[in-house]
Write a structure and sequence with these properties.
Blueprint lengths: L3 E11 L5 E7 L13 E10 L3 E2 L3 E3 L4 E9 L1 H5 L4 E9 L8 E8 L3 E7 L4 E7 L3
Parallel strand pairs: 1-2
Antiparallel strand pairs: 1-3, 1-6, 2-3, 4-10, 5-10, 6-9, 7-8, 7-10
């Protein structure tokens, strides 16, 4: 049986497993916003938990956002050398089929973390995860 004990992810928007769902960049595309101002990352939300979860929706004000995540496998998965799997998908609010970004990591034998960038901006989004 594969399980992830803890997943948190942070969302930040370029304006936006423990980590959270994202950051967003305000002021443009992550660099010079075209108006002489440099875009900066802003914290939007933090989510954590285990198993299948769907987050509350969150608003991304910029054109680009990132998710910084950390996943820790269940100790039983490590003991039986099967590792843990992490699957999480970003959907526009109201959408259930076409996702705009995903996190996929399989066979986790130790805590791992990374950052994923999404170039689908401005709007309300949510994350749905299935950690098997």
């Amino acid at each position: 049986m594969k399980r992830i004990r803890l997943i948190a992810f942070v969302i930040m928007a370029l304006l936006l497993a423990t980590v959270a769902v994202g950051t967003a960049c305000v002021g443009g595309n992550g660099g010079n916003g075209g108006n002489g101002q440099t875009a900066t990352w802003h914290h939007i939300a933090t989510f954590s938990g285990t198993g299948h979860k769907t987050t509350d929706s969150f608003y991304i004000p910029g054109e680009k956002w990132r998710i910084t995540w950390t996943a820790t496998p269940d100790p039983d998965a490590i003991e039986f050398e099967v590792g843990g799997d992490l699957y999480a998908f970003a959907y526009p609010e109201g959408e259930t089929a076409l996702y705009v970004g995903s996190l996929m990591q399989t066979g986790l034998m130790a805590t791992d973390s990374d950052t994923t960038y999404i170039y689908e901006g401005q709007g309300k989004f949510l994350y749905s995860s299935d950690n098997g």
